[in-house]
Design a protein that fits this description.
The chain has 15 helices and 16 strands. The protein starts with 8 loop residues before the first helix and ends with a helix. This is ROK family transcriptional regulator. It holds the Pfam family MarR_2. InterPro entries: ATPase_NBD, HTH_MarR-typ, ROK, WH-like_DNA-bd_sf, WH_DNA-bd_sf.
């Protein structure tokens, strides 16, 4: 039986977040980064191991660890987030609904994408998510544990309750989504704007890793979305609606946008215009890149207009939030790859010089999984806040037991805790008990 948790919950979650976001890390590195003493870190890691949220690996005998002089003491154990604890990352587009199982260690365990014959309503999307998740859970390994669901929506989302206030490409307005989906699945569900999630994912794991001030622009089937990270935190505004950079003004004589304005970025730089002139499939970015490389005059004229609009939008963002890095995803990343430094040159030509001293404009590194990784962070939010797994056994819409329900560390009444107990490979049980006692006062 797992020992009752006696460590400080805040410190348990703190260590789990570090391992999840920065791992794998050694116990010595955890000690340095948290400022806690070695015995406390030992106890905290031990508790996470008992919950099945992390596991430890011990270097082979005689191996010199990176964090100690060779031959001095024992190598520090490496702590890795579990690959068996997963969140369901949901993306909803005008033509597809996708559900991806992302593990706490960042690996993608499985995915299903369902093409939609028409733009899905909220009800249709909820049914599709339940159906896809049912298939994924039915074929999943029994040891997987599903802890939450995160949804990336191409629109304005009220983050506190997951109501989609306005998703114009989907035709959704004031649609409850996270709540009904949670009732359908029996799992915690959170929803947010897709580009905001993409910005945070690139900051944690992608081309802006560790950057505290960045702007992210993603071009996809539902137009252009933007997300901002400022001072190391997501910049969401009063109601979570900040970052609508697709609707920044770039052309006085431009096309009227669905939002009612004229000359928005997403009307002046659009995936549809590029795929139409290149004759490529809308969702085939590799084919688009190859077609752009051919350099046909008609294609280059469209590219020129879009680069001009994009540079103006980036200039607006720089003068507003002063980012260090601008990350371009989706077809905007392909466009950047085609024109190289031209986007940055155009931006610098129309921006106050001091504000571009450190500026970098880079393609998104996470590729098609950028929104998936961001949505997964939402799915892990409750777990990373308190280090506790859900207390209810999730079920799919058909009533089938979901992934590894009986393996959830804190299960529903009447079930047993079957999480793998910690192994005392590196220390005795007495040492662990002493460390747990010390951690009570941490």
């Amino acid at each position: 039986m797992a020992r009752p948790a006696t460590t400080t919950p805040g410190n348990v979650a703190r260590v789990l977040r570090i391992v999840h976001e920065d791992g794998p890390v050694t116990r010595a590195e955890l000690t340095r980064s948290t400022g806690l003493n070695r015995s406390t870190v030992l106890a905290l890691v031990g508790e996470l191991v008992e919950r099945g949220l992390v596991h430890e690996e011990f270097p082979a005998a005689g191996a010199a660890a990176a964090d100690r002089p060779a031959g001095v003491g024992r190598p520090s154990a490496v702590v890795r987030a579990s690959g068996d604890v997963v969140a369901a990352a949901v993306t909803v587009e005008i033509d597809t609904v996708a559900v991806v199982l992302v593990a706490l260690d960042g690996t993608v365990r499985d995915r299903l994408v369902e093409p939609q014959p028409s733009v899905p309503t909220a009800v249709v999307a909820i049914d599709a998510v339940a159906r896809l998740l049912g298939v994924l859970t039915a074929r999943a390994a029994p040891e997987l544990r599903l802890v939450g669901v995160g949804v990336a929506v191409p629109g304005i989302v009220r983050v506190e309750d997951g109501v989609v206030r306005d998703a114009p490409h989907l035709g959704w307005r004031d649609e409850p989504f996270a709540g009904p989906l949670a009732e359908h699945l029996g799992l915690p569900v959170r929803a947010a704007n897709d580009a905001n999630l993409g910005a945070w994912a690139e900051r944690l794991y992608g081309s802006a890793r560790g950057v505290d001030d960045l702007v992210y622009l993603n071009g996809g089937a539902s137009g252009i979305g933007g997300g901002i990270v400022s001072a190391g935190r997501p910049f969401s505004g009063a109601d979570g609606y900040a970052g609508e950079l697709g609707h920044t003004f770039v052309a006085a004589n431009g096309v009227r946008c669905h939002c009612g304005a004229v000359g928005c970025l997403e009307t002046e730089a659009s995936r549809d215009a590029l795929t139409a002139v290149t004759g490529t499939a809308p969702d085939d970015l590799d084919a688009l890149a190859a077609a752009l490389a051919e350099g046909h005059d008609a294609v280059e004229r469209v590219v020129d207009r879009q680069v001009t609009a994009l540079a103006t939008a980036i200039r607006n963002a720089i003068h507003t939030v002063d980012p260090e890095v601008v990350v371009l995803g989706g077809f905007l990343g392909v466009l950047l790859g085609h024109v190289g430094g031209r986007v940055e040159d155009d931006v610098r030509a129309q921006t106050m010089a001091a504000m571009t001293d450190r500026l970098r404009i880079v393609p998104a590194e996470l590729g098609r999984d950028v929104l998936v990784r961001g949505a997964a962070e939402l799915g892990f939010a409750d777990l990373l806040r308190d280090g506790a797994v859900p207390t209810a056994i999730p079920t799919t819409a058909t009533g089938a037991t979901a992934i590894g329900a009986t393996a959830i560390g804190a299960t529903a009444a009447g079930t047993t805790d079957t999480a793998t107990p910690a192994t005392d490979t590196d220390h005795s049980t007495t040492d662990r008990d002493d460390a747990v006692e010390e951690a009570r006062t941490a």
